[in-house]
């Protein structure tokens, strides 16, 4: 029941990728990174309302225009980077951490425990991501923390399956057999010999997964299940702006464009690295 | 052959059972009393509490509660929403049609667009443009593309209704919005499949028989390229259901998405559980069918 995406010959893929795309992606990520680290560099208070200048079109004073309360949309997008990305990053950290643990466990225990864990991953993967997150939020309530844990749980099977598969290969490797012969303890065996060698594909997967996590987080915030207004989260801004779409497209479309640019950049870099990674191993 | 089919069906049933169990565990894990979780924001009277205890067998041992839940789920009895004072099956039954319409229309648009993109953009430059477009389609959140389409075609041009579910015109924009990311993923997979198939010896043979490049592509390579795409059917189901929840909100359409969001907002757990388990069931059934379709397409798999 696993979804096996066909693996294109990575060397041709790498050569075919246009370099300008990677440069653009790096620039976008650098900008987003700066916005996360130091939003005040680009823009002032994202919450400052100006009732005299509501829903103004983009201009020199307000690059992305103003919203229904006269707040500067550009400032809100810049300050929103921290909200949106921290949710994605935290969720990915949870997913990767728990995925590695469970994957190792499945790969190293007895056949039946492995079978049970693997079916568990299958069951978790059978729920559409959005619905799984909704289920979790229904139980734990709305809010940023639930959103993070929900997305973390929903994306965990992906990493767990990869780590399990890697573990099954690594545990047969000669160096593990040698370590056993030298009387290495169980802990040492796992920490020093197995773990470092199963982690290979994880950073690249996590990079692509981060894009996906940001996308789901924005979607759930759009549904009103994440950070609550007036906090400047991209998905929440889109949802607020949706009501004024007929007179002010910029208040919803531009925050959405920020999500898209970030996700595309993460995906482009992730795939590029994936191509390089697989090419080296061929 | 029969053994291979039986194995795949059994695997599907196991995953379905695990999914139903996971949903049940989620209910148990809810903070506070299970009766509170089931009531949600609904009226809380001693009669209703007694009714819930009777329906969920909460006065019996845990194992009986669990087995009874599984039995009821297997029979298609999805329980009762105490918030809406109605059986969950009825609530879902009323709202499922617009969602299924949306999902099917989006699937058709996604698959057709992907086929057209993958087959027609073989030339080097066109293909580069098309690959970039696919990446954009995949990475653009559906609520953004929905809002852009809504802004241009409904508000600016007035071609389509702004909200609601009034026939085919109202279905067009939501279906396109949901279909676009699917087209992006599928056409990438199809293109890679076509690339690999065209490198195979059979493609050389077909060319040497004097077939035009187009005929080799459509009659021979495309079949091979379709095999990995079939694997994605299960994924497609998940995207369609999850995406529909968001798209219905963007376009103000009635459907399962609205029901689910309301249930999540009001803590109406029986409805949330039912929708989630139903979605998992759809995923498992379609994935199992895809596995079986594999056996039909590729005889090599029938033996193992």
Automatic annotation (TrEMBL), chain A:
Keywords assigned by UniProt, alphabetized: Cell membrane, Membrane, Transmembrane, Transmembrane helix, Transport
InterPro entries per UniProt: BP-dependent_transpt_permease, MetI-like, MetI-like_sf
Keyword Amino-acid biosynthesis: no
Membrane topology: Multi-pass membrane protein
Pfam family, one: BPD_transp_1
ABC transmembrane type-1 domain residues: 81-270
Compartment(s) where it occurs, according to its Swiss-Prot or TrEMBL record: Cell membrane
Main location class: membrane
Superkingdom per UniProt: Bacteria
TM spans (from-to): 21-41, 85-108, 129-153, 203-227, 247-270
Protein family membership: Belongs to the binding-protein-dependent transport system permease family.
Protein name, per record: Peptide ABC transporter permease
From TrEMBL, chain B:
Regions that span the bilayer: 102-121, 133-155, 167-186, 226-251, 271-297
SUPFAM superfamilies with a match to the protein in the record: MetI-like (SSF161098)
Protein name (Swiss-Prot/TrEMBL): ABC transporter permease
InterPro entries per UniProt: MetI-like, MetI-like_sf
Keywords on record: Cell membrane, Membrane, Transmembrane, Transmembrane helix, Transport
Primary location class: membrane
Gene3D superfamilies according to UniProt: MetI-like
Location relative to the cell: Cell membrane
Membrane topology reported for the UniProt record: Multi-pass membrane protein
Sequence similarity: Belongs to the binding-protein-dependent transport system permease family.
PROSITE patterns: ABC_TM1 (PS50928)
Residues annotated as domain ABC transmembrane type-1: 96-290
